[in-house]
Write a structure and sequence with these properties.
CATH topology: Rossmann fold
Helix content: 40-55%
CATH class: Alpha Beta
Strand content: 5-15%
Number of helices: 7
CATH architecture: 3-Layer(aba) Sandwich
Bound molecules: NADP nicotinamide-adenine-dinucleotide phosphate
CATH superfamily: NAD(P)-binding Rossmann-like Domain
Number of strands: 5
Order of helices and strands: HHEHEHEHEHEH
Number of domains: 1
Largest sheet: 5 strands, parallel
Radius of gyration: 18 Å
Strand order of the largest sheet: 3-2-1-4-5
Length: about 230
């Protein structure tokens, strides 16, 4: 989507644009055979995504680092939709340990997985390192989702194989992906405090979201989404 369409909301070839709501886009969709994980589903865009997926009858797992906020989000969804299927699980994307624990907890539920919405994100924060020693925006927005996706990929392939329904992985990026350091992702200086710029660091993490999506899509097409 170009900047003009983004600002004006002018619909694209799909008939939808930036002014379209999630309810409009999913009107008439029956998602009752789908299970979805929404990261950062306790607030913002993630909560709206979780709410509307549940409205379309999907089984939604809200993955959130603040479990109390996630429980409140679940209650908010249930208030207007008493038959909504919503579960909450703890996930802190800036911790490799937490991502692994989340996947273990999700697998223990014995559910299939059709949709992975990599939505959670932090924006423009001051320089900080994650518990694994990685700059926080890159760790949260990209690396956490990259690891989460890899750990869930086999489950998604199995679900697609056994149900015949193609899965979907959605990485939430941003127009900010064009506003990066000079050479795009500054791999040699990911953690560098001196050259850190909060907006460019956000931009590079959002560029990483797009590169991840593009390469994953290419690999799944080359090897077949059911292949290894
Ligand atoms: N809003 C926009 O205009 C806009 C534009 C372009 C792209 N985006 C992208 O859209 C996505 C959602 O944005 P938003 O506006 O809805 O943001 P938001 O309202 O700030 O919500 C972000 C969510 O991510 C969660 N989160 C942050 N760090 C996390 C971590 N380490 N582990 C797990 N969850 C974590 C937050 O949980 P806590 O409450 O615990 O912090 C919150 O639920 C982001 O990826 C953002 O980059 C947004």
């Amino acid at each position: 989507m170009g900047i003009f369409a983004l600002v004006t909301g002018r619909p694209g070839p799909s008939g939808f644009g930036s002014a379209s709501t999630a309810e409009q886009v999913t009107d008439g969709v029956d998602a009752s055979n789908l299970t979805a994980i929404v990261t950062g589903g306790a607030s913002g865009i993630g909560l709206e995504t979780a709410r509307v997926l549940a409205l379309r009858k999907a089984h939604v797992i809200i993955a959130a680092r603040n479990i109390e906020a996630a429980k409140e989000a679940k209650q908010l969804i249930l208030k207007d939709n008493r038959s909504a299927r919503v579960d909450v699980l703890t996930l802190d994307l800036c911790s490799i340990k937490s991502v692994g624990a989340f996947v273990d907890s999700f697998n223990a539920l014995g559910l299939p997985l059709n949709l992975l919405i990599n939505n959670a994100g932090v924006m423009f924060c001051p320089h900080q390192l994650s518990e694994d020693g990685i700059e926080l925006q890159f760790a949260t927005n990209h690396l956490g989702h990259f690891l989460l996706t890899n750990l869930l990929l086999e489950k998604m392939k199995n679900t697609a194989r056994t149900t015949g329904v193609e899965g979907r992985i959605v990485n939430l990026s941003s127009i900010a992906h064009v506003h990066t350091y000079k050479d795009g992702i500054d791999f040699d200086k990911i953690n560098d405090r001196i050259s850190y710029n909060d907006k460019r660091a956000y931009g590079q993490s959002k560029l990483a979201n797009i590169l991840h999506a593009n390469e994953l899509s290419r690999r799944l097409q080359v090897h077949g989404s059911c292949g290894r």
